[in-house]
């Protein structure tokens, strides 16, 4: 009886009428095949269960830090043994000292603030524009017709290649810097959000249609959350790309900012200050990225991925 | 006027084509209020096409004919189609604009035996549980017509039987008319008031099933109907 439950209508129905025909006999033997072929306990064909897990497995404690610690160790040992020339790369503790000095006595806090404000302004502008453009071109075919072409052209041009033109148009002041950053942020936000919007499963659209929801509810409860994974991907690229543009624009006629500090140090041959600047860039960049990552984990907690 | 008052749907001379293949050929069908219809047919015979036409989901498919449906129509898909980013309760009341939506959602979850799972994410539910949430959702709008396209097709036999019982119980409470597409002859005869066979684009058979519920598959009436149906399916 349980067998006829799981099999299709075909064998169940034929069995009573044509018991001798080959079809049901085949079906029956197929259904009971495991019971017939299981050999005795002495068989060598049986072995332990051998499934190799293909996921990533358990997390190591502080796994993210292994590479960094290894690099720091090599750097320290190299400095102590004198393998690394201090003029090329000062020892880690020298960098720490310089950092401390710049923070307490020097202008590092001002520089950091200037850089962060610049990046934040450019980022917000680029994020807003990229998002609006993506939503317009993602939700309407006409919008896509007008918007997607120019954005694709812009994307094919390296963002920083626009700088000479931007300098001509906006001068070498703060405007040019913020616009350059904004442009470099806009592209990844647009690309990934647009992809996210267009990649939403058609089945969910059908569902929304059968539930007779309004267009606004549809956008708010289906389109928007459905494109969040794309948006966050774009966001993580965008944060780093705003940081990257920052370091370039700060070499142009800036009077403050971490990049300015480093350019200045370069003319005076202060390797330790340059490295200190790099450390600050890296630390702030990493902090930003992990902030976005945390936000992403929260906003996408409904997903089950290989990250676990 | 009074005649259509008792109808949950009226399909008149419905045709649908994909390319030069005619899938539905001049189909007419009246569905009475609270009637339970099972629609069976071979794979590719056009069951989904018919159901989607009635639901109005077949934008841009070539064809003709008239479809009259009540204001409140629901659709249950073969996959549960829960929005993965919404918690279970929010999925149930998705699209519901009533002020007591949350209350109603909770009641429905209770009715499908999922009280306490309101705040779960869909991925935390088993396939059968997801399908129950989907059933709750399809009833949340108090539909007068419920269209179901093989909603239990992906479930195991035991779960499917439980779902049958649940569906009949829910139908008693909410009283929608139902068109259930299935390729499971047993499912059709144990559940429906009327079984339709779709074949060559037309309704080849229209069999009433009058046996009392709960039905016993060994009931002679059901056995006869099952035989007829299986013949139509070419078994
Ligand atoms: N979008 C489409 N474009 C072209 N042909 C289609 C499309 N949708 C369905 N068809 C064809 O129409 C026919 C009927 O399809 P339909 O999905 O209605 O079958 P069905 O009876 O629901 O089958 P099943 O039991 O396998 O779900 C099939 O031959 C199918 O190939
Ligand atoms: Mg189908």
Description:
- The complex is a heterodimer of chains A (308) and B (235).
- In chain A, 72% of the residues lie in helices and 0% in strands.
- Chain A is mainly α.
- Chain A has a domain at 92-299: MetI-like (MetI-like fold).
- In chain A, α7 runs antiparallel to α12 (215-249), α7 (108-139) crosses α13 (258-267) and α13 packs antiparallel against α14.
- The longest helix of chain A has 35 residues, at 215-249.
- The model of chain A is unreliable at 1-36 (pLDDT under 50).
- With 235 residues, chain B is of the alpha/beta class.
- Chain B has a domain at 1-72 and 176-235: Rossmann fold, CATH 3.40.50.300.
- In chain B, the strands form two sheets. Chain B has a six-stranded mixed sheet with strand order 5-6-7-3-8-9, with helices on both faces. Chain B has a three-stranded antiparallel sheet with strand order 2-1-4.
- In chain B, α4 packs across α5, α5 (127-140) packs parallel to α6 and α7 crosses α8 (220-232).
- The longest helix of chain B has 18 residues, at 157-174.
- Chain B is globular.
- The chains are: A mainly alpha (308), B alpha/beta (235).
- The A-B interface holds A 2, 5-6, 9-10, 12-14, 203-204, 206-213, 217, 221-222, 225-226, 228, 301-304 and B 55-57, 73-75, 77, 79, 81, 83-86, 94-95, 121-123, 137, 141, 156-158, 183-186, 226-227, 230, 233, 235.
- Magnesium ion binds at residues 47-48, 149 of chain B.
Helix and strand topology:
The complex is a heterodimer of chains A (308) and B (235).
Chain A (H helix, E strand, L loop, with lengths): L1 H5 L2 H9 L4 H10 L1 H5 L28 H15 L11 H13 L3 H32 L1 H16 L6 H8 L3 H25 L3 H9 L4 H35 L8 H10 L3 H29 L9
Helix pairs in contact in A: 2-3, 6-14, 7-8, 7-10, 7-12, 7-13, 9-10, 10-12, 12-14, 13-14
Chain B lengths: L1 H4 L1 E12 L2 E12 L3 E6 L5 H9 L6 E7 L4 E4 L11 H5 L8 H11 L15 H14 L4 E5 L7 H18 L2 E5 L3 H7 L2 E6 L2 E7 L11 H13 L3
Parallel strand pairs in B: 3-7, 3-8, 5-6, 6-7
Antiparallel strand pairs in B: 1-2, 1-4, 8-9
Helix pairs in contact in B: 4-5, 5-6, 7-8
């Amino acid at each position: 009886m349980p067998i006829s439950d799981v099999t299709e209508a075909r064998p169940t129905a034929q069995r009573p009428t044509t018991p001798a025909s080959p079809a049901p006999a085949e079906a029956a033997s197929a259904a009971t095949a495991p019971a017939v072929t299981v050999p005795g306990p002495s068989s060598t064909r049986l072995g332990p269960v051998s499934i190799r897990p293909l996921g990533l497995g358990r997390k190591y404690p502080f796994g993210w830090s292994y590479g960094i610690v290894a690099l720091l160790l090599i750097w320290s040992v190299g400095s102590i043994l004198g393998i690394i020339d201090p003029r090329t790369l000062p020892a880690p503790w020298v960098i720490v000292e310089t950092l401390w000095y710049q923070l307490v006595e020097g202008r590092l806090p001002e520089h950091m603030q200037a850089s962060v404000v610049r990046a934040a302004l450019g980022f917000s502008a680029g994020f807003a524009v990229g998002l609006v453009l993506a939503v317009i071109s993602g939700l309407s075919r006409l919008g896509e017709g007008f918007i997607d072409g120019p954005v694709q052209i812009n994307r094919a041009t390296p963002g920083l290649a626009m700088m000479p033109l931007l300098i001509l148009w906006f001068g070498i002041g703060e405007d040019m810097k913020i616009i350059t950053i904004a442009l470099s942020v806009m592209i990844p936000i647009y690309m990934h959000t647009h992809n996210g919007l267009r990649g939403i499963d058609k089945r969910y659209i059908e569902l929304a249609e059968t539930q007779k929801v309004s267009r606004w509810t549809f956008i708010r409860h289906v389109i928007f959350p459905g494109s969040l994974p794309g948006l966050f991907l774009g966001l993580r690229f965008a944060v780093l790309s705003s940081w990257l543009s920052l370091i370039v624009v700060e070499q142009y006629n800036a009077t403050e900012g971490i990049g300015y500090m480093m350019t200045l140090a370069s003319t005076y041959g202060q390797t330790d200050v340059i490295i200190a600047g790099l450390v600050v860039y890296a630390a702030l960049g990493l902090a930003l990225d992990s902030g976005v990552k945390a936000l992403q984990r929260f906003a996408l907690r409904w997903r089950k991925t290989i990250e676990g | 006027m009074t005649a259509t008052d008792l109808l949950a749907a009226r399909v008149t001379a419905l045709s649908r084509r994909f390319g030069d293949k005619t899938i539905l050929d001049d189909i007419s069908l009246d569905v009475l209020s609270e009637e339970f219809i099972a629609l069976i047919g071979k794979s590719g015979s056009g069951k989904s096409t018919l159901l989607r036409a009635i639901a109005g989901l077949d934008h841009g498919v070539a064809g003709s004919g008239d479809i009259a449906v009540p204001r409140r129509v629901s659709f249950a898909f073969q996959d549960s189609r829960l929005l993965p980013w919404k918690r279970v309760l929010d999925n149930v009341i998705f699209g519901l604009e009533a002020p007591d939506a949350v209350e109603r959602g909770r009641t429905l979850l209770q009715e499908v035996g999922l009280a306490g799972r309101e705040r779960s994410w869909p991925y935390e539910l088993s396939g059968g549980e997801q399908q129950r949430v989907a059933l709750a959702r399809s009833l949340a709008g108090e539909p007068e017509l419920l269209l179901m396209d093989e909603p239990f097709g992906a479930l195991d036999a035991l779960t499917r039987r439980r779902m049958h019982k649940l569906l009949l119980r829910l139908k008693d409470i909410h009283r929608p008319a139902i068109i259930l597409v299935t390729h499971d002859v047993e499912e059709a005869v144990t559940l429906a008031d009327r079984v339709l066979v779709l074949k060559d684009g037309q309704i080849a058979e229209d069999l009433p099933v009058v046996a009392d519920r709960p039905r016993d598959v060994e009931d002679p009436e059901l056995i006869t109907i099952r035989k007829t149906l299986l013949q139509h399916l070419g078994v």
